[in-house]
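sanity check this fold:
=====
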Amino acid sequence: MQYMRRLIVVLFFISIVGILFAQPSIDTTIGKLNKNSVEYISVTQLLQDSSVVLLDTRKKEEYDVSHIQNAIWVGHRKFKLNLVESKIVDKKAPIVVYCSIGVRSEDIGEKLLKAGYTNVKNLYGGIFEWKNKGLPVFDQSNQETQKVHAFNRYWGKFLKNAEKVYRFKNKALEN
């Protein structure tokens, strides 16, 4: 009986340690943080449709480090619907919102849907998934770059195929 109790305790601690040190993935993180309120589009699907308008919902400093070519910066906290409405008059136009992995962009997608836009999708895995698949990103001078703003060290774990850039108090720290 004593042996069984010890075995149960050991197995319990092993499972707890496994949970604490498990490497999170984009899939599990999106599953925990998103409500699936905006339809997803995969990187592969996005590549098949050149008519979409891309909206980058990250911070301006993230966008300046790199963004998907031709994306329009709209921000997240500083998002202004009237900016989008002035650039995208057709409420049926295909729009894809993205951020680092797809969490902040879901918020902006919800606002666009509420404003009457009917063809809004959220890029699954965001710019991290885009870059992880080896696709190009461009800096503020519209030059191709390998750098991607990784937001912070936690989120940076999801970015595998880029030179990670972190900015704190206007000071760049490159990894």
In short: The chain has one domain: 25-174. The two ends are 52 Å apart (CA to CA).
